[in-house]
Design brief:
Elements: H1 2-17, E1 48-51, E2 57-58, H2 63-68, E3 76-87, E4 121-132, E5 136-139, H3 147-158, E6 176-177, E7 211-214, E8 220-222, H4 235-242, E9 249-252, E10 263-265, E11 272-275, H5 279-284, H6 300-317, E12 333-334, H7 341-351, H8 354-362, H9 364-374, H10 386-399, E13 405-408, E14 411-416, H11 419-425, H12 440-457, E15 475-483, E16 489-496, E17 499-501, H13 511-526, E18 541-543, H14 544-552, E19 555-562, E20 567-577, E21 583-588, E22 591-593, E23 599-601, E24 605-607, E25 611-613, H15 651-658, H16 664-673, H17 679-689, H18 704-707, H19 715-722, H20 728-737, H21 742-751, H22 756-768, E26 789-799, E27 807-814, E28 817-822, E29 825-828, E30 837-844
Parallel strand pairs: 6-11, 12-14, 17-21, 18-24
Antiparallel strand pairs: 1-2, 1-3, 3-4, 4-5, 7-8, 7-9, 9-10, 10-11, 13-14, 15-16, 15-20, 19-20, 21-30, 22-23, 25-26, 26-27, 26-30, 27-28, 28-29
Helix pairs in contact: 7-12, 8-10, 9-10, 10-11, 12-21, 15-16, 16-17, 19-20, 20-21, 20-22
InterPro entries: Papain-like_cys_pep_sf, Peptidase_C19, Peptidase_C19_UCH, UBA, UBA-like_sf, Ubiquitinyl_hydrolase, UBP13_Znf-UBP_var, USP
GO cellular component, one term: nucleus
Catalytic activity: Thiol-dependent hydrolysis of ester, thioester, amide, peptide and isopeptide bonds formed by the C-terminal Gly of ubiquitin (a 76-residue protein attached to proteins as an intracellular targeting signal)
């Protein structure tokens, strides 16, 4: 053994002399637990091999890629990390396993919430050092190695992987602080409320449970009756109404603990569970010491689970069904990294599309080899290349490359943990870079934008015939405007990647049943409905065809600029398809913001069909007998969200608006339209324009100054673009055509690589022309067109009150069979919840 160690030390010294060991600093990005090119990790056979020069991790199968890189063609030293899991003994002596514990919290993955399948393990680590190409290896620690090797190994091991540590997979419904709490009226000379639960009684019916204490006047009354006949006589609400509706806050007595309690606000503008920051003081007024109280009654979250919420959860996750686990190509799950289910669900739909699967799944090995051949160690690493990471994810999901089979209580499944992809796709974004829940539709559009940018800047990694990911989903709408006064028409084409459909609840086919059900609930809440048997909730059932018909209807644009009149007028707008994409993404507008600016969910069932034909919605352009309006000079007015020539949206205002549940693009439009006045003013604009067809479209600043670049460009921008291999003239032209934006200019340069001279000549021609000749951004891609007949390929459903909380689940159709993809759980679906779909993926019929 001694001789082998001595020999290894000599080999190590030779590699060190060639610069094979570089100690990472605190600011350097290190990934040590997972291969940069596959999902092989430290727990797999052979572990992972981390280069001590570049700090890039490889699997034994991808180590050859390190040797193909110019920086390590002579080999080097690699830290091998192996980990094993040893199941711990169950803790506690309650006589009931964790997964059998009752659910008491409306959350996913928390101690008291809906359980994930994650098991608790003790992790054991084994380290060694491998020299390549000598294929010599020595166990660590090894005191005979040069000091710099020990320092490098120590620094690599102490580094956190290049992402924020995952948070627990919560999907709690966030409560808002009641505006009535701070200045709550509490009547003087209070009569103390007993701290003994056995003495609590409803002042109306004498009930002993589900009792609510009015924090203003001390009245104790029953809560409202539930649909199954449980609950109470509704005295607490009746008392609030009988006393002039001026004492809005009530606390549920049996839920008071030192940690808090359930507080409800009966006021019409809140009418929901709320937070009361001064609850301890408010309770003390009635002689109740929170620190001495214990829970004796079910919380509202527990009741919500028992009644409505659990029903929806079960429907979407197919709880109660005997689901047969599935695994293999196209059937690989994605682990939840902490509120990452929105990303997991979207990527399951996207990666299953033929164009994406071919380019990034089947073409993954070619992408990896090209990247490795250009990797010099100091430039962008594979974990920072979106093209590489998309290829890694897509090849795993669609071909099961580098994916290990795992056994759990449900059977044998296959899943990956997309840490690198999530860290990269969300880098620099205030929301997608966080561990908060997000809207899946907004993420889908953001992903397409980031993928397009990466495909242009890293075009050398892709085949010459490659079609951008976004081309599979992008299509054009044809907007027809008819001036109400002149009757002349204007046709405008605009690109989009989702078809947003409103849900006309008024056209529910079971409207009478819903009305009768709601009438029964009102009677039960007032206490005069009798003790009825359990009754499932009746929700409106709206045909999918009604949603399409609502989309096809004309609407009015009140601030349409008529070039014939040279002033604003009213116009009728009709939207039709100009092109149909290979894959059509439809999202149903189930979520809205109420009058109090609270995000809410529309409880409705929509029968999404397995096949649709949209050819009747194809536009035909200018028809015989129609008189066309002359080209607009000032554009359609602010009502269509036209971008200002000089206003940049305030990031502070945009963040405030996004926190209320609106899309980033819509919030930017509001800030621009209202000149960054304030979040309140911008919110008013949103309420007026959130149904605009282009509300969620990306902002394109069509400033005429972009077409006439009169100022010298920032030298740093020129240098940055030149570092990508372009000349100063090419960089200047790109900045001219893209308004000085370096990112847009880089995209433009790579997207015009095949005809760069002609594109530059066009930009320079514009620059030398009149300011009236230009303004539109340079470039643009054509949309693929085909028949408008589609079949349903997948859906994404959401559980929760709004898209900023809750949980997403995907269902996909592979061949003729449906599968549920609930994060890492993949199984054959018995009953896909098509009527609860939020986002639908349709693929063109062959």
């Amino acid at each position: 053994m001694g001789d082998s160690v001595t020999d290894f030390v000599e080999v190590a010294r030779a590699h060190i002399a060639r610069g094979a060991v570089v100690v990472p600093g605190d600011a350097d990005e290190v990934w040590k637990d997972e291969c940069a090119y596959t999902f092989s990790n430290a727990f797999g056979e052979g572990g992972v091999l981390v280069s001590l020069k570049t700090w890039v991790a490889y699997s034994p199968e991808t180590l050859q890629l390190a040797l193909e890189s110019p920086c390590q063609s002579a080999g080097g030293l690699f830290l091998r990390i192996r980990k094993t899991k040893v199941e711990r003994e169950p803790e506690g002596s309650k006589g009931k396993a964790d997964d059998e514990a009752p659910v008491t919290e409306f959350a996913l993955g928390t101690e008291n919430g809906f359980k994930l399948d994650e098991q608790k393990y003790e992790v054991r680590e084994q380290l060694s050092l491998l020299a390549v190409p000598e294929n010599a290896e020595v166990d660590l620690p090894c005191g005979d190695l040069p000091l710099v090797v020990g320092e490098c190994v120590k620094a690599v091991l102490e580094h956190k992987d290049g992402h924020t540590e995952s948070l627990i997979s919560e999907w709690k419904e966030e409560l808002v602080t009641s505006k009535y709490a701070d200045a709550l009226i509490q009547l003087p000379d209070p009569k103390p409320v007993s701290s003994d639960p056995s003495k609590w009684r409803c002042a109306n019916c004498g009930a002993k449970t589900n009792l609510w204490l009015n924090l203003s006047d001390g009245y104790v009354g029953c809560g409202r009756r539930n649909f199954d006949g449980s609950g109470g006589c509704g005295a607490a609400l009746t008392h609030f109404e009988a006393t002039g509706s001026i004492y809005p806050l009530a606390v549920k007595l049996g839920t008071i603990t030192p940690k808090g309690a359930d507080v409800f606000c009966y006021a019409a503008d809140e009418n929901d569970m709320v937070l009361d920051p001064a609850l301890s003081r408010h309770l003390q007024h009635w002689g109740i010491n929170m620190l001495e109280m214990e829970k004796t009654d079910k919380s509202m979250a527990e009741l919500q689970i028992d009644l409505n919420a659990k029903h929806e959860f079960d429907s979407i996750t197919e709880e109660g069904s005997v689901l047969v686990p599935a695994g293999g190509p196209g059937l690989v799950g994605m682990k939840n990294l902490g509120n990452s289910c929105y990303m997991n669900s979207v990527m399951q739909l996207v990666c299953g599309c033929a164009g994406v699967r071919k380019a990034f799944g089947e073409g993954a090995q070619q992408i990896f080899s090209k990247f490795a051949a250009s990797f010099d160690g100091s430039s962008r690493k594979p974990q920072s290349s979106l093209v590489v990471q998309l290829a890694k994810l897509c090849s795993a999901l669609t071909l099961a490359r580098g994916v290990q089979r795992e056994k759990n209580d449900a059977g044998e499944t296959m899943s990956v943990s997309p840490d690198m992809f999530k860290a990269l796709i969300g880098r620099g974004h205030p929301e997608f870079g966080s561990s908060r829940q997000q809207d899946s539709v907004e993420f889908f559009q953001y992903f397409l934008e980031q993928a397009a940018r990466a495909e242009r800047t890293e075009a050398s990694l892709l085949p010459e015939s490659h079609a951008e990911v976004s081309s599979s989903f992008t299509f054009e709408f044809e907007d027809r405007f008819q001036c109400a006064e002149t009757r002349k028409v204007m046709y405008k084409a605009r690109a989009d990647n989702v078809l947003a459909l409103s849900v006309p609840v008024g056209q529910a086919t079971n409207a009478k049943d819903v009305e009768e059900y709601e009438d029964r609930q009102r009677k039960r809440q007032k206490g005069d409905g009798g003790m009825a048997a359990e009754e499932p909730k009746v929700v409106p059932k709206v045909p999918f065809s009604a949603c399409l018909n609502a989309f096809a209807q004309d609407d009015n644009v009140d601030d349409f600029y008529s070039t014939a009149l040279r002033r604003k007028s009213v116009a009728a707008r009709r939207v039709r398809f100009k092109t149909f994409p290979p894959y059509l993404v439809v999202y149903l507008r189930r979520y809205y913001v109420d009058a109090a600016w609270r995000p809410c969910k529309l409880e409705v069932s929509v029968d999404v069909p397995s096949e649709i034909d949209l050819e009747h919605l194809r536009g035909s352009g200018l028809a015989a007998g129609e008189e066309e309006l002359p080209e607009e000079e000032e554009g359609v007015g602010a009502g269509r969200g036209a971008a200002s020539e000089s206003v940049e949206p305030s990031q502070e205002i945009v963040s405030q608006l996004m926190a209320m549940g609106f899309s980033e693009n819509g919030c930017k439009r509001a800030a621009i339209a209202m000149q960054n006045a304030s979040a309140e003013v911008c919110m008013e604009w949103i309420f007026q324009h959130m149904e605009d067809a282009n509300f969620n479209d990306p902002i394109i600043q069509e400033s005429r100054a972009e077409a006439v670049a009169t100022k010298a460009h920032n030298p740093e921008s020129i240098v940055m673009l030149q570092s990508m291999g372009f000349t100063e003239r090419q960089c200047g032209a790109a900045l001219d055509g893209c308004g000085g934006s370096v990112e847009r200019a880089a995209d433009w340069l790579f997207s015009h690589a095949d005809d760069l001279d002609a594109a530059i000549a066009e930009v320079e021609g514009r620059k030398g022309g009149s300011a009236e000749e230009g303004g539109a951004p340079v470039g643009g891609s054509k949309c693929e067109d085909g028949p408008g007949q589609y079949r349903l390929a997948g859906i994404l459903s959401h559980i929760g009150k709004n898209t900023g909380a809750g949980h997403y689940v995907a269902h996909v159709c592979r061949g003729n069979k449906w599968y549920i993809m609930n994060d890492e759980k993949v199984a054959v679906s018995e009953k896909p919840p098509l009527d609860l779909a939020y986002m639908c993926l349709f693929e063109r019929k062959a």
